[in-house]
Design a protein that fits this description.
The protein has helices at residues 8-24, 33-52, 59-75, 77-86. By secondary structure, it is mainly α.
């Protein structure tokens, strides 16, 4: 999901797989949420830079990234918010 050569479709599929893991493993993935949010924030920032270059991210990819952030907030609200604040996201 974070590779330079990964496509928007790869990103969407990665989000769907991660969504399934997070929602089906309550209480077992707390220590992975900060790293996951780091990936999501990096991909969103990459989208902003791509847009400046004239290569915008597709809407379905941006939607999946935002949905994954919401799922992280649902899964562990306090931990997710602390992680996002610490990364100034």
């Amino acid at each position: 999901m974070s590779g330079a050569d990964s496509s928007d479709r790869d990103c969407v599929e990665g989000c769907k797989l991660t969504e399934s893991l997070v929602l089906n493993c309550p209480g077992k993935l707390d220590h992975y949420i900060p790293q996951l949010l780091t990936l999501l924030v990096a991909r969103m920032r990459d989208a902003e830079s791509r847009e400046a270059e004239g290569k915008p991210m597709r809407n379905y990819c941006r939607t999946e990234l935002m949905k994954m952030m919401c799922i992280c907030l649902y899964y562990n609200p306090l931990g997710a918010l602390q992680s996002l604040v610490s990364r100034k996201a």
